[in-house]
Automatic annotation (TrEMBL):
UniProt superkingdom: Eukaryota
Naturally occurring in which organism (per UniProt): Cyprinus carpio (Common carp)
One term of GO molecular function: cell adhesion molecule binding
PROSITE patterns the UniProt entry points to: IG_LIKE
GO biological process: cell-cell adhesion; synapse assembly
Family the entry assigns: Belongs to the immunoglobulin superfamily.
Protein name: Kirre like nephrin family adhesion molecule 3a
Membrane topology recorded in Swiss-Prot or TrEMBL: Single-pass type I membrane protein
Record's signal peptide: 1-20
Keywords: Cell membrane, Disulfide bond, Glycoprotein, Immunoglobulin domain, Membrane, Repeat, Signal, Transmembrane, Transmembrane helix
Compartment(s) of residence: Cell membrane
Residue ranges of every copy of the Ig-like domain listed in the record: 21-117, 125-218, 225-305, 310-390, 395-490
Amino acid sequence: MIYNCDLPCSFFLSLLSVLGSSVVFIQQPHDLVVVAGQPVTLPCSITGYHGTVLWVKDGLALGVNRDMSGYPRYDVIGDHSKGEYHLLIQRTELTDDGSFECQAIQAATRSRPARLTVLVPPDDPVIIGAPVVSLRAGDSLNLTCHAENAKPAASIIWIRNGEVLNGAAYTKTLLRDGRRESTVSTLHISSSNIETGQQITCRASNKAAPNGKEATVTIDIQHFPLVNLSVEPQPVLEGNLVKFHCAAKANPPVTHYRWAKGGNMITDATGDTYEVLVDHSFFTEPVSCEVTNALGSTNISRNVDVYFGPRLAAEPQSLQVDRGSDAVFSCAWIGNPSLTIVWMKRGHGVVLSNENTLTLKGVRQEDAGKYVCRAVVPRVGVGEKEVMLTVNGPPSISSTQTQQALYGEKGQIKCFIRSTPPPDRIAWSWKETVLESGTSGRYTVETVSTEDGVISTLTMSNIVPADFQTIYNCTAWNSFGSDTEIIRLKEQGNNQFTPHPKQPNCAELSYSKRSAPDRDYAHLRSVSGCLMIPAVLCSPQGLCAWPSSLGLQWELSWLSSSSLGPWGLSAALDCRGVSELIVSTETETQRRLAPHVH
Ligand SMILES: *[C@@H]1O[C@H](CO)[C@@H](O)[C@H](O)[C@H]1NC(C)=O
Ligand SMILES: *[C@@H]1O[C@H](CO)[C@@H](O)[C@H](O)[C@H]1NC(C)=O
Ligand SMILES: *[C@@H]1O[C@H](CO)[C@@H](O)[C@H](O)[C@H]1NC(C)=O
Ligand SMILES: *[C@@H]1O[C@H](CO)[C@@H](O)[C@H](O)[C@H]1NC(C)=O
């Protein structure tokens, strides 16, 4: 039963208060504060009254006497005979919040109004993103904590490592019920003031929850992989094993590794290490390691300090230049550690340059030849490259100016010509004859090219004494000019060394020449182990010679009676144990193997 107590009721009550002046409130309800869920008792004791007692909340009658049937959590308790009508509210709710009055209806008297304030603790606070808030390295962080449905509004503080963090901004929102409020607090933390793994707590409290309620987040700072690429050992000699180690720190964790060298993927390395036998290419082509996590990849690369011997980077080229102009050679090597370059001419020990280039100014024909560009990496290796310098110029003839032939036999005179460009023409001339090639009478000219030059050979058959008396002019021409060599032909002595017909263990030496000796006497010398058997030696023509010394070295001389006609001599020699005999005259030296001696 609810009494609506608007205007007619208050009129009725004020009438009662006039009538029941003896009714007294021993206990009246007073202002109370209760936390929602707790019971609360509003006291009311009236003496000298036996009428109806009515509890009114915010002007609305709740029930008469003990009848609170409309409010299951409300009871009127106490000893009624003593006038006790306490209002017990079980498990208070927010709706209980209000102003209460206890009224003695028939006495027309009422208690003073008592304010019942119901407090509500906030719901458990919630940090958006909890339990783990991830952010990227370098980003600042805004943390938001909600503490809802509190009365009065919760206040929020932020705590890290036991210290309160200041500077949070908050807003409060009144709920539809007009009583509770929600609080939102936002905390800004700069990137420099935050570390991964830190825990930050939001504590929400109000009078209903003075100790507060907490929520905590863990900070997780994510970053690209941080990578160190180590190379062991260094420096290292080419051909040895090197280990690359890609040490990475990453959050979130590394998903994979990739390796490359000089832009080419290394497919057989998929982990954080790569082992390989290094060669020179590791010096110039960096090895890179790319480490990837969910955020992205980091790629770093390293060159290896590989020691290696010189390798040709630019090959020197052989040159053909005109006499008088400059010749410039260049070669380039790479090597590690640093190398030195030396240019030399083959066969000459002189260092011509220590640069990549060798410049020869105003070359002469003597400069032609092989040049060597040599590179040295100390204690590691040596490299060498040879080039050729060819100097264009007139021919150059180098031949023995006196050549020999045997009387009556076939003889040859050779003319050796160096010429770049090759000779256009080679001519032999003697007396009135000029012959370039082919055969004319007893004479034939043949020309052969060799690596070093051209050899022109004048061959004459059946040599006569007149052949020894003339000069032979060998001339070669090319576009730069000509060169001439005058060659003489000398008769070669015919020397024989045979076992002596009569004396065992002895040999007989005979020496003869058809043309006259140059002077009117000649020497015949030998350095050998042969013993001259003392005798007067005579030539077949009756010229006699006397040994002028005896022993291991001997010398014969004779006088010639005539400068015409053949001449010669023979000697008996004891040549036991001698394998070779060297016979020399003033104009020639001949070697003969010793004949078999018994
Ligand atoms: C944090 O809040 C501030 C102020 O509202 C804003 O300027 C900033 O962009 C926010 N930062 C992040 C990381 O959300
Ligand atoms: C890289 O090396 C530096 C210096 O040795 C070290 O401080 C750092 O922690 C290393 N980083 C990684 C990812 O290993
Ligand atoms: C790392 O970067 C270099 C240069 O951009 C590239 O050549 C190489 O292939 C990359 N490494 C990997 C493993 O992708
Ligand atoms: C050799 O022959 C050449 C060409 O025929 C000639 O010009 C030159 O004068 C000759 N030299 C001698 C010394 O006879």
